[in-house]
Amino acid sequence: NAGVTQTPKFQVLKTGQSMTLQCAQDMNHNSMYWYRQDPGMGLRLIYYSASEGTTDKGEVPNGYNVSRLNKREFSLRLESAAPSQTSVYFCASSGGKTSGRLNIQYFGAGTRLSVL
Amino acid sequence: GESVGLHLPTLSVQEGDNSIINCAYSNSASDYFIWYKQESGKGPQFIIDIRSNMDKRQGQRVTVLLNKTVKHLSLQIAATQPGDSAVYFCAGPQAAGNKLTFGGGTRVLVKP
User: Fold this and answer.
1) What tens digit of pLDDT does each residue of B64-106 get?
2) Dihedral angle sign, alpha carbons of residues A106, A66, B27, B8
3) Contact criterion met (CB < 8 Å) for A94 and B46
4) Edge-to-edge, what's the strand order for the sheet holding B56-58?
């Protein structure tokens, strides 16, 4: 029972390099999210996708792009990494809030990214 | 805007004692709340939720209390164990979209 799977688990980049963080869920969820978590800052939403084919900015979208490849997969791309993007990144998914159901988000294990 | 916040960043508790983690929220229209547990090096894990039409909900060794009058909720952990050492977050729904607002987290340290 995999749930939400993120790859890679760890990554070190040099300033200016690009990379894509991958996320896949097997719960048939409509909505997917990317967060970053920094010490003392809690979880901050970068981008989200309410349903397949749609993406929207969250609180801290600058420097990132996303792609909702299909219902299962939602990737986060750093085009030109900066030291300020050193963080732990979490992907989450949820069924969305529909009649009688709560929008409970389920999280992956995270990607620990260092930008030197 | 909406906010969800925890009262104490760190809670130190003796093994076997009960833990109480508090959270305040600003949006009185929030119709549910969620508690998450995050162990070191892992992602947040769903623990329990409570709908706004309830005052109390119990799970396995955990109880959520909701006081809508003062916009406050708490997570109580009975007979705290070393495995309960983690950061606990409360979260509430945002008014628009399928998004959540998360509190800053309370770290629970269990002393043997």
Assistant:
1) 999 999 999 999 999 999 999 999 999 999 877 789 999 888 9
2) positive
3) no
4) B4-6, B19-25, B72-77, B62-67, B56-58
Chain B: give the shortest CA distance to residue A52, in Å: 13
Contact B6, B75 (CB under 8 A): no
What is the tens place of the pLDDT at every residue in A28-49? Answer: 999 999 999 998 778 999 999 9
Dmax over CA atoms of chain A, in Å, equals: 47
A113: nearest Cα among A59, A48, A31, A35: A35
Mean pLDDT by runs of 10 across the 116 residues of chain A is 91 97 95 92 92 94 96 97 97 79 91 97
**Length reported for chain A:** 116
> Over the stretch B88-99, which tens digit does the pLDDT of each residue have?
999 999 877 789
Contact B44, A90 (CB under 8 A): yes
For residue A33, give Cα distances in angstroms to A18, A20, B35, B85, B87: 20, 15, 18, 26, 21
Q: Is the dihedral of CA A14, A15, A19, A23 positive or negative?
A: positive
Q: Which residues of B touch A108 (CB under 8 A)?
A: 43
Residue of B nearest to A40 (CA): B104
Give how far A102 is from chain B: nearest CA, Å.
7
Q: How many CB pairs under 8 A join A and B?
A: 53
The answer to whether the peptide bond before residue A83 is cis (omega within 30 degrees of 0) is no
